[in-house]
């Protein structure tokens, strides 16, 4: 029997057409073919009904409004790219090597666009998230083992975000780190209560608002001390000066893609529409998702680039910038207390948004792999408690943040390899399957990211990173 639910519906009209094809099963290739034919028929009917109106001003306005309605999921996922861990890495890079590694961030951002679009594409075409597809294709033992590593990654993710937020509150209000962590946990839990159902769009808007605060907080210093455009442009030429700069570039590239962002984006594109809400066609969703991903990661990439440029321009050669606290104190000494406060506010927004998104991802991973839909507050507690324990006992929170980033690196292959396989699966993707050129590019990017993450882990264990 043909069933249409919130996650599997591509367009409401297909439910009508599905009644004419009772043999449809969305899990096999025949279902994919039937779905594609149904969508083609729907698009044909729409074009015939519109006639020439699509070229009119009203038609263009309608198209723009429809596109705006698709935007949002990538901006939520992009929060993972401006978390406190990235803040620390970019400032350290600029303070140590100046503009040398600007090209690394540009390359990293380009790879991120491909990875995140592939995740969105998988969710749009199949109507399911990556964790759900993994859960359907694994035996029970495999599902539980995969969930265990994914949950460890979620805890490590939350650890980094929690530490960043606690440091921000300490810088702003002189709160003890543990108390600051409790405040971050409480506020992010309230934010997560808006996720789901009809309030999901509100959750998206709040996260995007925090992303804008992050952007302002981290680029404000450039208005006080603008960089030399020629020096910035010089950093676009790929080159190194020392072995240490090679290691820093490897760390920056290797830590580019966050596992939870890959898992979550395939969920976000479907949760963007409330139950019963009409969806655009698959083609329009994919086209809109391209715009969504490019603009979202362009914003996140610009923020990271501005952080590196700020450090290169104002903090180059200064000691103590290898920690977030040290970097903030250096910013205050060079650019003044106002810019230092704005930076701390940006760091606080970074923590609140990224820890909320990380917990959201953990909830969806549990739902997809274990088929358990736990309350969001319960998922928050699972990831929050280990972080609070670290804040209470760890003598150096920055070291704990670095360890958390290394654990994230271990989880990258578990997310990126299944994504690469599924988007090249003809039976699963139908006519939207990746072609040989795109698949080859995806393989190259995946191999590079995985190799660099392995290198980062090895160097950290050996004490050389």
UniProtKB/TrEMBL annotation:
Q: Where are the transmembrane segments?
A: 64-82, 97-115, 144-169, 175-194, 206-225, 293-318, 330-353, 374-394, 400-419, 440-462
On the tree of life, the source organism's domain of life is: Bacteria
Residue ranges annotated as compositionally biased, kind Basic and acidic residues, are: 38-48
The membrane topology of this protein is: Multi-pass membrane protein
Chief site of localization? membrane
Q: Which GO terms describe its cellular component?
A: plasma membrane
Q: What are the protein's GO molecular function terms?
A: cadmium ion transmembrane transporter activity; manganese ion transmembrane transporter activity
According to its UniProt record, where is this protein located?
Membrane
Pfam family for this entry, one? Nramp
Q: Which GO terms describe its biological process?
A: iron ion transmembrane transport
Keywords annotated in UniProt = Membrane, Transmembrane, Transmembrane helix, Transport
User: Which residues does the annotated region (Disordered) include?
Assistant: 38-58
This chain's protein is named Divalent metal cation transporter
Q: Which organism is it from?
A: Bifidobacterium myosotis
């Amino acid at each position: 029997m043909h069933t249409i639910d919130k996650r599997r519906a591509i367009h409401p009209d297909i439910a009508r057409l599905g009644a004419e094809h009772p043999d449809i099963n969305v899990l096999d290739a025949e279902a994919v073919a039937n779905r594609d034919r149904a969508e083609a028929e729907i698009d044909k009917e729409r074009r015939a009904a519109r006639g020439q109106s699509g070229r009119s001003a009203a038609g263009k306005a309608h198209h723009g409004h429809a596109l705006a309605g698709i935007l949002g999921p990538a901006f939520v996922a992009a929060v993972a790219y401006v978390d406190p861990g990235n803040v620390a890495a970019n400032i350290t890079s600029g303070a140590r090597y100046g503009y040398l590694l600007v090209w690394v961030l540009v390359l990293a951002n380009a790879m991120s666009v491909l990875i995140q679009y592939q995740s969105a594409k998988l969710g749009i075409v199949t109507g399911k998230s990556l964790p759900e597809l993994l859960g359907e294709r694994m035996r029970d033992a495999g599902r539980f083992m995969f969930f265990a590593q994914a949950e460890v990654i979620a805890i490590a993710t939350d650890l980094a975000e929690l530490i960043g937020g606690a440091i921000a509150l300490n810088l702003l209000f002189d709160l003890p780190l543990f108390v600051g962590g409790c405040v971050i946990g409480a506020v992010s839990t309230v934010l997560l209560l808006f996720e789901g159902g009809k309030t999901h769009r509100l959750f998206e808007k709040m996260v995007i608002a925090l992303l804008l605060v992050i952007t302002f907080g981290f680029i404000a210093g450039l208005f006080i001390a603008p960089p030399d455009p020629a020096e910035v442009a010089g950093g676009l030429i790929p080159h190194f000066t020392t072995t240490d700069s090679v290691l820093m570039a490897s760390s920056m590239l290797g830590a580019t893609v966050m596992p939870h962002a890959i898992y979550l984006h395939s969920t976000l594109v479907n949760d963007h529409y409330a139950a019963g809400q009409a969806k655009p066609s698959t083609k329009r969703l994919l086209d809109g998702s391209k715009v969504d991903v490019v603009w979202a990661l362009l914003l996140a990439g610009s923020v990271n680039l501005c952080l590196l440029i700020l450090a290169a321009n104002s903090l180059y050669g200064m000691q103590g910038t290898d920690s977030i606290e040290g970097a903030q104190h250096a910013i205050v000494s060079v650019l003044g207390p106002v810019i230092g406060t704005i930076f701390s506010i940006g760091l606080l927004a970074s923590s609140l948004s990224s820890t909320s998104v990380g917990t959201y991802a953990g909830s969806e991973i549990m739902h997809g792999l274990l088929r358990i839909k736990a309350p969001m507050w319960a998922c928050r507690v699972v990831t929050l408690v280990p972080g609070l324990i670290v804040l209470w006992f760890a003598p150096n929170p920055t070291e704990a943040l670095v360890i958390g980033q290394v654990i994230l690196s271990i989880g990258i292959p578990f997310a990126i390899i299944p994504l690469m396989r599924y988007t090249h699966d003809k039976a699963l993707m139908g006519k939207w399957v990746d072609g040989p050129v795109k698949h080859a590019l995806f393989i190259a990017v995946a191999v590079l990211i995985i190799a660099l993450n392995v290198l980062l882990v090895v160097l950290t264990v050996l004490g050389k990173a």
